[in-house]
Amino acid sequence: MADMKAPTPPLNALRAFEAAARNGSLTRAAHELSVTQGAVSRHVAQLEQWLGATLFVRTRRGTALTPEGEAYYRGIHPAFEQIAESTRALMRRPSLNTLRLKLPPTFAIRWLVPRLARFHALNRHIDVQITTSHQRVDFEREDVDVAIHSGPQPPAGLHARRIFGEVLLPVCSPGLFERSLRLHEPADLAHHVLLCSLHRPNDWPDWLKAAKVPHIDGNSGLKFENSALAYQAAIDELGIVMAQYAFVADDLRSGRLVAPLTLRAETRQSYFMLYPEHRKGTPKIKAFETWLASLDMT
To answer: Please, are residues 162 and 268 in contact by the beta-carbon 8 Å criterion?
Structure first.
């Protein structure tokens, strides 16, 4: 009879029994546990002795659970599942020093990454991991600390900080501008290749409407998977791209791109930093938000 003072059976023996019962085989249990079949058999025998009950019987095909063994397995198996799930959850836990960001591709490539060294210089204890996607973040399902959202308003139920709004303007390479005989007013765009992102089909039509030249087809020309590719195509002199000012401001200052037409059209869209309300005050998120707030967005 088991010692009534013992709170639980021998844990190694219990683990061996659970694996053998779940796999229906001592051999498969041994493979899963990286031990010999003899070791599993000895652990099961130890458990049977501790319990004072027979858990397995030998058959022509190997072993089978007795009714007592089947009942015992059904009782302990959920506990092993809970241990496994708790272990997986713990291993998935976000590191205190890792900031996980989910960003639209162009925001990441054209705006954040060129500035990221400044954040790291001030916060060398924080590692940054970036994933890019056009899909809206789901903080309940995704391993994300902070997301950047583009839209007229931020999603409800989340802490949001507006970073900047959208201002549209056409830009091109200085080489293309210098070679162009006709690029002095909006109507001249009819003679040029227009570049844009597949994800932003309204940018050219909206700007052309503001410029009072709606007769130009804003959906003609070359289209790219994201705006960052369209901007690079403009730098490579493939045509004129409808750009968001925040994403080309550095290129305009450096002369890599030029704005041949002066009209800038504001949209209803803005970029917002998002995170769940209950994470407010988390040191790594607070450090990132403070740094964002300190940047000159002009």
So the answer is: no
- Sheet with 194-197: strands ordered across: 127-132, 98-103, 146-151, 265-276, 158-171, 240-244, 194-197, 222-224
End-to-end CA separation in angstroms for the chain: 80
Beta pairing partners, 275: 159
DSSP states along 119-162 = HHHH-TT-EEEEEE-SSPP-TTTS--SEEEEEESSPPTTEEEEE
Rounded Cα distance between 63 and 206, Å, is: 74
SS (H, E, C) 269-291: EEEEEEEEHHHCCCHHHHHHHHH
Distance CA 155, CA 274 (A): 9
Helix (H, G, I), strand (E, B) or coil at 171: strand
Q: Which two tokens stand for residue 60?
A: 């022509």
DSSP 221: S
- What are the tokens at 286? 């607070």
Between 254 and 84, residue with greater pLDDT = 254
110 neighbors 247 (Cβ within 8 angstroms): yes
**What is the C-alpha R_g of the chain?**
31
Answer yes or no: is pLDDT of 6 > 60: no
State how far the Cα of 232 lies from the Cα of 236, in Å rounded to an integer: 6
Please choose, from the candidates 157, 230, 171, the residue with its C-alpha nearest in 3D space to the C-alpha of residue 200: 230
Enter the tokens of residue 271.
């970029």
In this prediction the pTM is: 0.67
Place 165 in a pLDDT band, splitting at 50, 70 and 90: very high
